């Protein structure tokens, strides 16, 4: 239908990028990116009117999003040649043809288009031997400036590599390393780097990608003081095992913060401040990171020796999910299970009837810090004996 509308307003229309890649790989993908040779916004408005969809235009980029009643979305772009005024910044845009549009993309596997206009419906546009790379499982840049134009592509390369079990081709790898060493990643905003890492964390096997980021030296340009040792790998492995269980118990857990508890271990204060600035960690997060780091050994042994919940409570109180996640990096399965039981006790234990007022009346006390102490003690006792 999109193609029919293309004909009606005389514009060639293509579906491009990830959708085509996954179609050829026989993998479902519901992210539809459409490119129009012509004005993408005008096209989106036309389709929106015919199909009663909302059009959200981004004038500056000549793009628009069509939002249908059932929530389905299609992104529409104008075929364009982007040029970047400064590396790492958002591109400037020029109107152009589909071939140029495809050429400016990240990798060959993402640089194919399928025509949607009825006369040529379904025809694959493959100008750069992309299909061959897709079949052979190769991640290849289209031109040597690719990583300079958008350094986050270094991270994307690893993401696609591990998602499809593909390999970054040799020349691409060479250019990647060269641009990496020239510190191009450092020119990108922390928010964009963080977004790319978060995308990796949404993949099925994030640890494999993280290992590869470390192996290629990319991780060092994101977490400058992190030494990716086998011990660190083991810690992350344990965190990834524990994470789904924490997510069942707390809402809005960030995977990025979760792995950061391990990746940011033993950072000096200055670098931590820098990281906080760059990646936007909350102050509280950094504080609890330091707390857990200092208390790690006693906490680990308390949990391993299955000390009573009330004793653990004296040290970490109600804690917070990132403290527990960090701790989980040091615990084997049995330790993690005990920690989970502690978390459940904390989440399910409440002093229902017993309030400050109740304590004051019952024991004939005046208000003061002692009331709080009594409440805390009662709470800790209840942790051990829920009934
Ligand atoms: N693209 C690019 N350079 C980037 C990001 C994206 O050239 N830094 C292009 C690629 O052609 C990509 C398309 O824009 O296919 C859409 O990008 P995106 O939605 O981020 O990725 P997908 O390829 O759709 O991958 P995913 O399956 O992870 O959504």
From TrEMBL:
GO terms for molecular function: metal ion binding; nucleotide binding; nucleotidyltransferase activity; tRNA binding. GO terms for biological process: tRNA processing. Keywords: CBS domain, Magnesium, Metal-binding, Nucleotide-binding, Nucleotidyltransferase, RNA-binding, Transferase, tRNA processing, tRNA-binding. Belongs to the tRNA nucleotidyltransferase/poly(A) polymerase family. This is CBS domain-containing protein. It comes from Fervidobacterium pennivorans. The chain holds residues 476 to 862 of 891 of the full protein.
């Amino acid at each position: 239908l999109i193609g029919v509308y293309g004909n009606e307003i005389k514009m060639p229309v293509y579906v491009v990028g990830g959708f085509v890649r996954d179609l050829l790989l026989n993998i479902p993908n519901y992210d539809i990116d459409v490119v129009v040779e012509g004005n993408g916004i005008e096209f989106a408005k036309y389709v929106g009117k015919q199909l009663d969809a909302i059009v959200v235009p981004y004038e500056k980029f000549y793009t628009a999003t069509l939002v249908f009643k059932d929530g389905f979305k299609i992104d529409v772009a104008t075929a364009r040649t982007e040029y970047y005024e400064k590396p790492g910044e958002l591109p400037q845009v020029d109107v152009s043809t589909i071939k140029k549009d495809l050429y400016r993309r990240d990798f060959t596997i993402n640089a194919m288009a399928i025509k949607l206009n009825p006369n040529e419906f379904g025809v694959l546009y493959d100008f750069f031997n992309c299909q061959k790379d897709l079949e052979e499982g190769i991640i290849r840049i289209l031109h040597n400036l690719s990583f300079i134009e958008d350094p986050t592509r270094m991270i994307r390369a690893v993401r696609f590599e591990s998602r499809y079990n593909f390999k970054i081709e040799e020349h691409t790898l060479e250019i990647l390393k060269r641009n990496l060493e020239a510190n191009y990643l450092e020119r990108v905003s922390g928010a964009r780097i963080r977004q790319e890492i978060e995308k990796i964390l949404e993949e099925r096997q994030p640890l494999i990608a993280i290992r590869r980021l470390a192996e290629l030296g990319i991780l060092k340009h994101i977490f400058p003081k992190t030494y990716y040792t086998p011990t660190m790998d083991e810690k992350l492995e344990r965190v990834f095992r524990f994470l789904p269980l924490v997510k069942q118990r707390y809402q809005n857990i960030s995977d990025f913060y979760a792995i950061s508890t391990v990746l940011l271990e033993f950072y000096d204060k200055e670098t931590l401040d820098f990281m906080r600035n760059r990646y936007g960690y909350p102050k509280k997060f950094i504080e609890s990171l330091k707390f857990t780091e200092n208390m790690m050994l006693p906490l680990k042994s308390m949990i391993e020796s299955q000390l009573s919940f009330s004793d653990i409570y004296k040290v970490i109180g109600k804690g917070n999910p990132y403290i527990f996640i960090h701790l989980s990096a040091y615990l084997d399965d049995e330790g993690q299970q005990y920690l989970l039981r502690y978390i459940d006790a904390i989440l399910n234990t409440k002093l229902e009837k017993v309030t400050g007022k109740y304590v004051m009346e019952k024991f004939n006390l005046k208000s003061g810090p002692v009331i709080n102490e009594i409440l805390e003690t009662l709470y800790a006792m209840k942790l051990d004996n829920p009934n």
